[in-house]
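Annex B.
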Amino acid sequence: CSRPQKVCLCPFLPVHPLKVSTCLYIIQHPAEESRVLRTVPLLAACLPPDKCKVLVGRRFSEDRYPELATVCRNPNTLILYPGAEATNLEEVAVMSSSPSVMIIIDGTWSQAKDIFYKNCLFRLPKQVQLKTNISSQYVIRTQPTNTCLSTLECAAVALSIMEKNKNIQETILRPLQALCSFQLQHGAQIHHSKEHLLKNGLYDKPMPKNKRKLRRMELLVNNVKI
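tRNA-uridine aminocarboxypropyltransferase: predicted structure tokens.
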């Protein structure tokens, strides 16, 4: 896990990498590389190297990333990005029997949106989303809404659906639960979602002057899906 011995997470990782047929391509925004408590390294530690490939960057052209371009043109490739165009992953998994490739964008919502819409390659795969109401266990980082999940959590849920094996989700979430537990024991505070803080009058930061951001916060308070 590459962490100090005092807070080592290796005992919470699977003894052997999980055997999965689905290959993950994690498209990571450069800002995530410098975060101390990022979840992608834990995800990669749970899976074989050839089943979890991390590409860091903002722009991905076909010339610079020929392998990724080939993956995006593969009819079995899915991209996990919610929206009006997305199909629930559960429905796709029922109809699919062949090994798949799944692309997941790692970053804040605004960073993920920027990567998705400014890279035409990511509009080629079938767009899917998770139909789940589970709350994030990544409680040491603020999420926009109560149902927003970290990259590791998204991957855990998605893989359990694609592989039709709920044990995968439990195994991948175990090191995340341990990470949060260690951090809370060493002074970290539980971070409620922005949605929770706004609805309960606990949001103590200045309200944004940008009308678009202000409108998004109003939608959160009024329980409107954004």
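The longest strand covers residues 23-28. The chain has a mean pLDDT of 80. Further annotation is deferred to the next reporting cycle.
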